[in-house]
Amino acid sequence: MNVFDKAFLHNKFKAAVLANQTQIGFGVVSGSAVNAEIVAGSGYDFIWIDGEHGPNTVTTIIDQARAVAPYGSHVVVRPLEADRALIKQLLDAGIQSIIAPMVESGEQAKYVAESMYYPSRGKRGFGAPAVRAGRWGRLPEYIKHAEDELFLAVQIESKKGVENLKDIVTTDGVDAVFLGPADLAVDMGHFGDFSGEEMQATVEKLIKDICALGKPVGTIAGSPEEAKRYIDWGASFVVVGVDTVFLAHMADSVLEACRTIVK
Predict the structure, then answer these.
(1) Residues 6+ apart with CB under 8 A from 174
(2) Against a cut of 0.85, is the pTM above it?
(3) Is residue 49 within 8 Å of 56, Cβ to Cβ?
(4) Catalytic machinery residues
(5) What is the DSSP string of 2-54?
(6) Which three-class secondary structure string do you get for 140-203?
(7) pLDDT, tens only, 99-157
(8) Is 45's pLDDT higher than 70?
C-alpha cells in the first residue's frame, strides 16, 4: 500500500499566519468547484469556501477542495454554523483550517476548540483512517501529527462577541480571530455598511486589541485599499473578494458599457 508521511499534512497557511506573514484570500460563495479552481489559478494564498451563506454541503466543499488541491492555494472553510458534528465532518474530509462563525462567548469558543481535537484535549471522534483526512489509511501517522497542522479561527461578528472578546481570544485551542464586519455593522445599527467612521474605528480597535492579546487577526475587505488599511492595523489574513459579487459587478459593468454603444 502506498504510504504518505507527516510532511503531507503540513499547513503552510497556519505556519504563515502564526509567523505574521500576510495572507491574501478570495472567497467562493457560489458552491462551484469550477469557480474555486479558476480563483485558485490566480495564486491567492488561500481560498475561503463559505458554507455559512453559500449553497454548500460537505460534499460540495470536498469537490471545491479537490479542485483547488493542484494549485498553491490553501483551503479555509467557514461551516454553516459552529457545530461539533459539522466540524468533525469537515476535518474528516481533509479540511485543516476552519473559521467558526458567530462565536459570542468563551464557553462557545471552548466548545468549538474541543471539536477540533481528539481526547484528552478535545472531543473529536476518531474516524480518520477510513476517510479523506487520513487518505483512506495511507496516512498511518495521522493521529500523531494532524492536530499540529489544524487551524481554528473563531469569528467575532456581534456586539456580544465584542463584549466577551478577551474570554474568546484567550481560549485554549483558538489559533486566531476572524472579524465579520458586515454582521457586526448590522448589530450596531449600520445595516451592514462597515465603511463608515464608527465602524472603521471599531474594526481598528478590535484588530489592535486582539493582536495585543497575542492572536492573529483575519477579516474581509471590500477593496485593496481597505485591505491595506486592515493589514497596516495588524491583520494577518484578509479576504479581498468573493466570486458571486465579482461576477455580478463584472456582468453589470460590461452591460452598462455595451448599452452606450447600442443605438
Answers:
(1) 109, 112, 113, 152, 153, 154, 168, 215
(2) yes
(3) yes
(4) 53
(5) ----GGGG--HHHHHHHTT--EEEEEE-S--HHHHHHHHTTT-SEEEEETTTS
(6) CCHHHHHHHHCEEEEEECCHHHHHCHHHHHCCCCCCEEEECHHHHHHHCCCCCCCCCHHHHHHH
(7) 999 999 999 999 999 999 999 999 999 998 899 999 999 998 899 999 999 999 999 99
(8) yes
